[in-house]
Amino acid sequence: MEAQTLSGGFDNPAVQSSHAFRNIMEAMARPGQIHEIKGAEPPAPLSIAGGTVLLTLCDTETPVYLAGNADNDEVRAWLAFHTGAPLTGPSRAMFAIGDWKALMPLNAYRIGTSEYPDRSATLIVECAELAASGAKLRGPGIKSQAALSLPEIRAFQSNQALFPLGLDFIFTNGVRLAALPRSTEVA
Amino acid sequence: MTEYNFAYLDEQTKRMIRRAILKGLAIPGYQVPFASREMPMPYGWGTGGVQVSAALLTPDDTFKVIDQGADDTTNAVSIRSFFERTAGVATTTATSEASVIQTRHRIPEDALTENQILVYQVPIPEPLRFLEPRESETRKMHSLEEYGLMHVKLYEDISRHGHIATSYAYPVKVEGRYVMDPSPIPKFDNPKLGNMAAIQLFGAGREQRIYALPPYTQVVSLDFEDHPFEASKADHPCGLCDATDSYLDEVIIDDQGGRMFVCSDTDYCTARQAAGHKGKDAA
Lengths: 187, 283
Ligand SMILES: [Zn+2]
Prior knowledge:
Number of strands of chain A: 9
Oligomer: heterodimer
Strand order of the largest sheet of chain B: 1-9-8-5-4-2-3
Helix content of chain A: 25-40%
Low-confidence stretches of chain B: none
Distance between the termini of chain B: 47 Å
CATH class of chain A: Alpha Beta
Bound molecules: zinc ion
Strand content of chain B: 15-25%
Number of domains of chain A: 1
Distance between the termini of chain A: 47 Å
Shape of chain A: globular
Number of helices of chain A: 6
Helix content of chain B: 25-40%
Number of strands of chain B: 12
Order of helices and strands of chain B: HEHEHEEEHHEEHEEEEEH
Strand content of chain A: 15-25%
């Protein structure tokens, strides 16, 4: 086994994951707000924030889709060792990670059912930039208006139109992340 | 070295609860099922709220627990010391100093901030339960937004009593979509649910449901054009601190049937008395 597989996890899982979760939760509760999380040191090309989200939320109960170049031997071994999450394709994934293009098409993922809209995928989008500017966001969690550098606008408008069904997004860049739940109106 | 996991629950259970919390925040007012765990306290003691708190507390938190507004009931004291012991959190009774507040049946009088999280203990999460006992049916009703029966029940109140008699667990509609049970808070507290700066999380242990209100979410108490919602309150001030804006409990003060009305939020009342406010029953 590669040394990188065994390392790069949390040194103190209970405490590090509690801090990481709080930041993920704040991000999901306040769409567009940028938070920092760290603790994981995943193999390339995953970001520290992307890897930390996986370690915080994934385990044997959560099928994960590694999209595009996020799917390599090192990432597979690292994810298996630290989380035990089974790998899957987009249609069965509870979590997916990759860059925006690699994650396409969005209609491949589960959006929940009318009685169980929570049975839907969360996409972790690795971004080359992440800034509180660009697309205008409104909705629950946002006092008046927020802004976030989204990879596009149309896809998120279509997703919001599915509410209460839909996908939820976490955008990662280095140690930073922001989130966009299905409830957010994007313009 | 402690004999417990951090915050008592094992990591896998916390991950499961954390995932449910995130979906709850993404779908405000929708009840997310979760696999509730046995906790070292009876169900009536707020095991749903305790599990939500366990999943989100960090060692940096300052934790407050209120039981019908009071910090000093057996229930509140034991939950507070449970997390002091298992999560090493600091605790407080001051609303303004707390980063996480777990509550049974009240929302604090002081407005909460963006740096705070309010965790509710919920006995019955399903607002349609008394109309329809079957979970499969209530799920269908929520999915179809079939809330007519709920209005009928409230309207029956009006024809019977001349007003809506429901005074606790008064149902609300979240962002124009899901009807939600705000837990048995007095309807006096309902207006605080909407547009709150803090994150609100609801945990029902026995019924295995988690739901959430992100900050600044639109929450509307169900009502009728000819009978608009009113957040009723007693028409006299607190006997101890003279507050006219707080929710009051009636307290028996002697065995001759003497009684007084005092703030149910003991931290609020104590702080006002310390600031020199004095009610007519104050010593
Ligand atoms: Zn008072």
